[in-house]
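Morning F.,

Quick status update on the modeling queue. The single chain you submitted on Monday has been processed. Sequence for confirmation:
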Amino acid sequence: MTARYTLRFFLLLAILGGTVSAPALHASSQSAPAPASGLDTALIERLTGAKGALDAASGVFKVSVPRNDLDVRVGGVRLSPRLGLTSWAAFQKVENGAMVMGDLVLLEPQVNPVMSAALDNGLEVTALHNHFFGDAPKVMFMHIGGHGSVQNLAAAVGKIFRAAGEKPPATPRVEIDPARTTLDAAKVEAVLGAKGEMKDGVLRFTFGKTTRMHGETAGAAMGVNTWAAFAGSDGQAMVDGDFAMDERELQAVLKSLRKAGIDVVAIHNHMTGEEPRIVFLHYWDVGPAAQLAQGLRSALNTQTAVNAERVPG
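Structure tokens below.
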């Protein structure tokens, strides 16, 4: 017993005297806690207005906002936040600041106000789609991303969380029947700078794009195209359609459409494995025909400008 206590005494002296052996130091370093995330988590919580949790293994700090304010049902099932009705944003430290990715749970009328809040505050909108069939009220999911300073990203996320918590605007109702279309096709064509096809009371335009799949070119006839369809009158028309873009064009087109007041109703892919990758954006709006056409023209011009910036010389 005396020898054991003597050995412990000398080991303690060795540690205090800084003479710990290399193996002992190695063992100590192996048991050290994981490095911190490098994020100011208190700042993130304060600016987002949401509580978060740190995944120590990955250094990711995730804030969550359960949508307890929603009473959503699918058939007879009442959806709770843990069944997929929780908005979240995850922050990770990177070389030049931080990155954020997230998913927002939104009622349909909330989508475009929240999208504008995201785009106006430096975030990217990367997808918009549904997760359920038959849900009432209808819920949409909007994915976001961004790079920058932790403070700017957290402040932007806080703004969209607050926008998502506001009462959604009422959806306007208008009476338009394609069977009674009277709009002047020539006026819309003049704005868009393209010839449309009038059939069954719908004036439709198509703008082709190309990509490659399985080593072959796929173009407008295969579905790789932007299209727009108008119906109604010059003073009260509707437009819906689909933008086909490569990924680098998406954010510019989104900003242009939202600036024009045109609602975005879906962002997703139609294909897999294509090069370049094509993203499709579906939209809808009601208003004077020339005004709708001008909004689309501005988005098409933005798409052209993004492509021009990538052309050398």
